[in-house]
């Protein structure tokens, strides 16, 4: 897919869009309606960036997720429901426009190759901790493109799928960076932790962050008492 040199940027509080993940959005602000019209009439691409913490102005974090609009349903009142599918990490460069919405130059960032015994061990550790965290119970699992976008409607496909399907999918994944991203967007409840993972391009470092964050999630769920072997 040929990527454009600049892209519209949505700045959202606590939002992260990971490569391969799906992000449902409700578009109602006039400027974002204009952004959507532009995207649908060009390349169907939007970047989603988390608002920088502690800023009063709407300043995006430098690392965003570049997403493809897979589903767009516009209502009679002009609002729209979207499903974005993350494509790549995008490091935002200079803004070429601020009004009516931000448009930024950017650099698409791909994972560096990662292999070897240490990477495999870290990947297995993340998969193990993910199973442990899911066994504690979470409200729902973020849908995945491979398991959801086969529905004819698109919007109905956002229903959470079973724990068994998710664990089977996770166990079959071989790419360490993708494992880290999937677990992060699905299970990490802290927005700053998800943003840390998004900003970590190196897969080994990303896996180590995910392990640390998952252990914290597990301990919080246990009331601060770590389970033996965790």
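Sequence proposed for the structure above (230 residues):
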């Amino acid at each position: 897919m040929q990527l454009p040199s600049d892209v519209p940027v949505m700045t959202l509080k606590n939002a992260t869009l990971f490569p391969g993940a799906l992000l449902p959005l409700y578009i109602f602000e006039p400027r974002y309606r204009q952004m959507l019209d532009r995207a649908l009439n060009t390349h169907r691409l939007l970047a989603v960036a988390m608002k920088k913490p502690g800023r009063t102005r709407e300043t995006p974090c430098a690392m965003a997720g570049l997403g493809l609009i897979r589903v767009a349903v516009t209502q009679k009142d002009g609002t729209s429901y979207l499903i974005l599918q993350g494509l790549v990490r995008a490091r935002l460069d200079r803004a070429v426009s601020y009004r009516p919405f931000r448009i930024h130059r950017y650099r698409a960032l791909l994972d560096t190759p990662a292999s070897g015994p240490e990477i495999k061990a870290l990947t297995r550790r993340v998969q193990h901790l993910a199973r442990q965290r899911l066994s504690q119970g979470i409200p729902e699992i973020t849908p995945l493109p491979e398991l959801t976008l086969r529905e004819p409607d698109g919007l109905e496909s956002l229903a959470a799928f079973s724990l068994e399907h998710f664990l089977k999918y996770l166990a079959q994944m071989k790419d360490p960076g993708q494992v880290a991203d999937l677990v992060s967007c699905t299970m990490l409840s802290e927005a700053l932790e998800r943003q840390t993972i998004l900003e970590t391009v190196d897969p080994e470092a990303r896996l180590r962050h995910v392990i640390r964050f998952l252990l914290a999630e597990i301990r919080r769920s246990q009331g601060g008492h770590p389970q033996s072997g965790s």
